[in-house]
Amino acid sequence: MLYNTGCQKQLDIKPQNSVESNLALKTSKDVEGVLIGAYTAAGLRGLYGGRLQSTTDFLADDGDFQYQGTFSDYTELDNKKITVDNAFVEGVWDSGFNTIGVCNTVLANLNLVVAADKARVEGEAKFLRGMTYFDLARAFGKAWNDGTPTTNLAVPLVLTPTTTIAGIQKVKRNTVAEIYAQAIADLKVAEANLTNDADPSARTPYADSFAASAVLARIYLTQQNYALAETEASKIIESGAYSLVSSFGSEFQHPTQATHVFNSTEDIFAIQISAQSGFNALNEVYASSDFAGRGETIIFDQHLARYEDGDDRKNEFYDVFTSKFNNTFGNVITIRLAEIYLIRAEARILKGGADLIGAAADINVIRNRAKLANTTAITGAELLAAVKKERRVELPFEGQRLADLKRYQESTHSIDGDGNAVDTFVWNSPKLIFPIPKREMDANSNLIQNAGY
Amino acid sequence: MKKNLLTILLLFSCISFVFAQNRVITGKVTDQKDGSPLPGVSVTVKGVSGIGTQTDLNGGYSLSVPATAKTLVFNFLGYTPAEVAINRLVINLGLSVDAKQLTEVVVVGYGTQSRASLTGSVSKIKGADIENIPVPSLESAIQGRTPGVYIQAQNGKLGQGIQVRIRGASSVSAGNQPLYVVDGLPITVDDFSSNGASTNPLVDLNQNDIESIDILKDASAAAIYGSRASNGVVLITTKKGKAGDTKVTYNEYYGFSKPTRERQFLDAQQYVTLLRLAGTAGGYSTASIEARLKRYAAGSDNYKTYAVNTNWQDQITQHAPVQNYNLVLSGGNDKTKFYISGTYNNQKAFTIGNALNQYSLRTNVSNQANKWLEVGANLSVSRTKNFRLDNDDAFSTPGQIVALSPITPTIDPRTGLTSGALDLTTGLPNANFPIYFNPLLNSQNSYFNTTDYRNLGNVYAQVKLLRSLSFRSEVGVDILNSSEDNYTGALTSRNSGTPNGSGFNSSVTAVNFNTNNFLQFITDIGKSSINAVGGMTYQRQQNDLNSISGQQFPSDAYRKLNASANITAGSSTSTAYSLLSYFARANYKYDDKYLLTLNGRIDGSSRFGTNHRYGFFPAASVGWVISQEEFMKKQQLVSDLKLRASYGLTGNSEIGNFPSRGLFSEFGYAGVAGARPTQLANPDLKWETSATADLGLDVGFFNGRLTGQFDVYLRKTKDLLLNVQVPATSGFTTITQNLGKLQNKGFELQIDSKNIVGNGVTWSTSFNFSINRNKITDLKGQVIKGAGDGVNRAVEGQPLGIFYTAEFAGADPKNGDALYYKNTDLGGGKRDRTTTNDYNAATQVVVGDPNPKFNAGLNNTVAYKGFEFSFLLQEVYGDKIYNGGGQYMSVGFNNGADNQTIDQLNSWKKPGDITNVPEARLFGGNGVSPSSRYLSDGSYLRLKNIVLGYNFPKSVLEKIKLHSLRVYAQATNLATWTKYKGADPEVNSDAFSGNITQNYDFYAVPQAKTITFGINVGF
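ok -> structure tokens follow
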């Protein structure tokens, strides 16, 4: 027959749009490419691309704003009635473990990386893995201050990549304490392995040691380990490597940078978005259609009333929308210096041997940038109230609120169409914890569902 | 075609040995009906072997016969054989067409077969039946004409994908469309659409060039196509020239189309009244409700007097002319035959912005080079331009215009422009008026055009090696170049998200190379007949794609991407697969009574794991022609009776090109290249395998006046190519694996009756009926949700796509809350039938089936003198349709202020009201969630096609020097009888439909009702 010879060859067609696994990890450059791939995974819209922040903010919100759009996933979160097949909750889980899997692939192939880069590659991969584990544990597990972290379940701990079908494991959920411990261990390696550059113009957009310090500061604050939280925050602040952008609005608005925004002097870690890559899910949900968003999140007066007269941050609204995310190609800032000041202020107030003057100074840095006078708070309680207030006006829509609410043991409520309260949810309500996604429960019989679902 | 095919066949099977004899008989054989010459009729002497000839091109023959010869036998497939006593030297004869349908020739893979000797299940549709039907592609034309073939268009947009299911769906994750083969070569049917709504590459085929469509349904018929045969095979044969004078035929038709049905929405008064009620019930102050109404009314108070009452559906409906011009030249001589056809087809849809414009040219040529060699070529080129609409899920698609408020004017009096075009305060397109982006802005400021250039061609050579052995080689290519060109202007920014225009352009070149090389062996030994074929085939398809997207145009005058200041995406990709196969089939017939067919194919595919690269697909079938038995010859009633049985294996490999490989893919990070693993390797991946058993009965009464074909079948599919859900903690969410089983079983019948065959009047009826029952028998406990709301699911023990959601129980008479049956499983097959207003407390259950209980078609043709009248009724019965848009349009403003369907006027108003429409509460969420509330009966009976034609008589034609002249009027979808609450019941959202999501309506524009008038002239 005509094609009898070499017919095996005819059937051996290689994929061209992707690379086969056995060819993908051969050199140091390959592994470093997968490290960049880990950033792209972390930047997926389901995770740090925006929905980790927006889903937790809607869940925590008590009427400052409302989702009035057609994504029923957000509506469920806003109403604190999450169903087990909420696609955005599943997105956080799936993207989170995808990121962890890519990091694990990098870490399992460190032997290929040239000596000069090895510590950095390991550090960046562990930064991403540690941060992701901490955030997954907070979203899917009970808060650190809610009961016993050593028995409360968080998420499964997976530290090796899956490379074959046979290697797919039905893993069990580890405890909150175990996940926090792993996150801290990873971030400590990152902090030690990574360098930093004091000159902002020489910086890369990748994680440096201060990014690791920042997440460690968040973790220690959550664990009420105030001394260490202060230490980590101080590492960043006192290095002088970062500085607040002089005008609050400029931290977010970059109209002159139409296709890609470079990290500001305030950005400690940001998911990079450009016209060609990435997706800013915060722009999607918060910006109006004039700025490429869906115009579906309405800001209520309750939120605007939180701003003092003259607060520059109150100018970051137009129509019924926040303008923080008006650049569709703007980066998704996940850690910025202003938060580090507020972490340190809180730690200084609450640590043994409180440093109230230092705390007030930290608060004032934030207030002064917002064109407000120094705080009038003096006592520890007053200063703590001031920190809480500053966090609500400095950091709204940036994915901090749910953790704050639980740390401060506050309550929230769902609202009706006019913003009136409907049902109240206390800080440790099981409804303020994500369900384990139904898809995951169906695929893994070893998982235990959270209470309330 | 029959004559023509036979000519070819007989050229190879008969050799005339002409010796010097003492008598030469000459004559001419013609068709008794119209006197046209019949070439290729075999003329033999009864009882004497080795003497015979064939009629030439003009039907003439000349045969020397021995003195002892007494009778001449004339044989021609499709005609009743005749015997004539040799009592003169010139014997002219008119042969009559054999009334028995069983003598029909069917096209099977790599050959043809007479229906009389067929043991598999094959349905045939003649090209003449679907000529000039004004539908965009041939699937719509064959809808309802044959049993076991369920055809469903997505919506009324032109050139969109069409779902064809032959004997049900055989796969959950892999393809369920049949294999399409044109003149022996599998064609490209990939969907290259980029806008979320699929297109249909079969649009490029001109249905007027089709001689026949043969559909292989059971394993015996289809297994010769091996790994691609599980979903059935559609063999399309194009028209060929016939020997004789060159015929010139010109055909044109002109007509127009309208929507079949429309959904009814609230008018201005109803809208304002119900919205006020809903606003109050939803806790909104009067001031805020009135402010909302005023906003929708373009800032005017005239909504209070209902002064503006816009019917938005009218705004997207346009005059829709349809026109088609077709010129055919065909003819030839005994050596060379040709068919040349050119067509211009222009259809404008009734939906604004949607049209299809097509040129096509076909040339089929064959040449008998010498006694042992025939060569030929079939070539078609076409250009199809499709002016397309956005998918059903886009705010910009015309179908979504129904969401706009009837109190909103089409022209905003404040600006004098289309509502939404400009906000005077910002100078930007309006962000919150009308209620949603106005699709008219898209129609006025954007376009999305797809242009296909299609070249379908093949050449063949057939060599007669021995008296009963020939070799055929075919080489063909299908080259499809499809490009998309899109620009959306600045005024669409509320929808596109970019203030200064955005553009997209893509191009695909799909080259599909195929060669078939096979031997054919035909011989008779005593009472045995053997017809065998065997050979190899190799196919390779490569698709090369490029695309580019950009934003920021200086103005809407610039529409090409060279004017884009911000190129946001650019890509080139390439993908390919190959298939190397060996096939064989043997038909054995003994004494015209006992039939046996064995066939098989070995397929090697590039798509599968290294451990399973080759698959073997065998099939066997037997037939018993009972009517040939002696004991049947005594009676006159039953003229034909045949029992058939078949069993065999077929495969399905429609799962993409590289599902078995472990893959890493590139992802950019703000200009820096990265990669990450995207797919785990599965070297064990192999085909889905279907085992099909078919039992058939062919019966004919009254010498073929009434015939019937009955089939029952059971197809069990195993090793489903399934996207198996795995724990995401592995870093992956799905792996393509062979897992799961499903089955289809069913019954089909086809009855043809020649009710009146007589002088002047003929009346024939054909009826088909089919039942298919699909059931997923094993998914290892997985539940797979379809796109959309996930109400369509794949669930063990249920048919694919079953509607599985909460069961709605109406409105609570006390407070108007939506109620649902709890349906908690109480064990022992019982469920808690009490109701709840807590949606989460309602257990999800099976609430309906999107698969029809049965399909039927009834075709009647009446001819009287020159008049002919025919109509085709099509019925789909017992399916349910889910209105995915119901959560917005039929929900009493509970999910926003979208305009509502009129059934919402029956909403609960006060305690004691008994209604199944819960209270209207603006943004109240009352009854919004997916439930059986949005399900309705999808059964329909449709006057699919009706034609009235008149053929001018010969007397007139002679005067005006024409060969033939026919005028006709035709209508498609003229009437539809249905209880469906939506627009048209033939619906399947182009944004969500797939294997699982079926009968899901989402703002679909209805099917077209088209009336055309045509003329057909033969010169």
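Chain B touches chain A through 88 residues (CB under 8 Å).
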